[in-house]
Amino acid sequence: MSLKAIFISLLLLFTYAISMACDCVMMAPVTAYVPKSDYILVVKARDIQSTGDPEIDNYYPGVNAQIEVVGVIKGKSAPGDLLEFAPHSVSNCSLKFKKDHTYLVFAYKDGDNFAVYDCSWSGDITDKRVRKDIKELYRYMKRHK
């Protein structure tokens, strides 16, 4: 195999790997997503559930979960509510829940279940930025009642 063929093969492989990655650049402030979101919740993952597809469960573990509402920033829900999160489609940008972790989620109702908006400010509260965003969202909602 020629050096040119090896180079082209590596270039194609590298390009494919890049195209599979999630690249959500969050340019707007977190409060810009309030009007676009049906639900903005602080939740705790109580149980990670199967999607029914072993390949999806293996590649995207945690996309289906039973969660408990801890705090409501926007939407008709209350602390203690148990909600099923099961997106109608999954991607590299899908939020993957981990049992007993707490999250900020920008969500919508999808049939009987809830789903997290891809490329939203959703994230695990172990991230300092997410904790800061939660405080900012509560302040914003107080000012814009």
TrEMBL record:
<feature type="signal peptide">
    <location>
        <begin position="1"/>
        <end position="21"/>
    </location>
</feature>
<protein>
    <recommendedName>
        <fullName>Tissue inhibitor of metalloproteinase</fullName>
    </recommendedName>
</protein>
<dbReference type="InterPro" id="IPR008993">
    <property type="entry name" value="TIMP-like_OB-fold"/>
</dbReference>
<keyword id="KW-0732">Signal</keyword>
